[in-house]
Here is the input.
Amino acid sequence: MSMSKIKRFKEELLHLVLQYCKEDGNEQLAVLWGQHTKIHLSIAHVCKLIEGGKWVEVESYLKSFIEVDLSKAHHRGLFLPIANQKIIEVLDSGDYNEGHRIFVDEIMLYQNYNPTQVENVALLLRLPNVHSHGFLANVPDVKVRRKDLIELVKKTLESNEFKNLTAP
Here is the structure.
């Protein structure tokens, strides 16, 4: 058997195990299998994590499939909104030390690509109430912001740039 046939057989076998897990109703095992084998990124799983505000898990799960390259607009379009939501929620809870850490370690990475967004987030660090900032004043509810983020992330992951990761 040629190497390409062996490789194709292995990929088909991995997908069959994934399909079996889904058909057997074991979605969590399917998510873990897809992540472990790098054959399937579950958009539904990402959405559940976002809905629950599990930011470390969201980023870890996505980064297990995607080697982040900030020179690629679709990577920035996926990871910057997640970092923004994470810092907004941290600041909203009053944890400005953690907010500063997130700003320095995560948000500042986007300075060369989206300086206006970075400046807006920097302004949030100086406000006693993050909802007094113009772009947050009209959407104070965390559930609404998470729902909007879920829609953005779904749209991004369903785009052609990530199609090979999310295909069934």
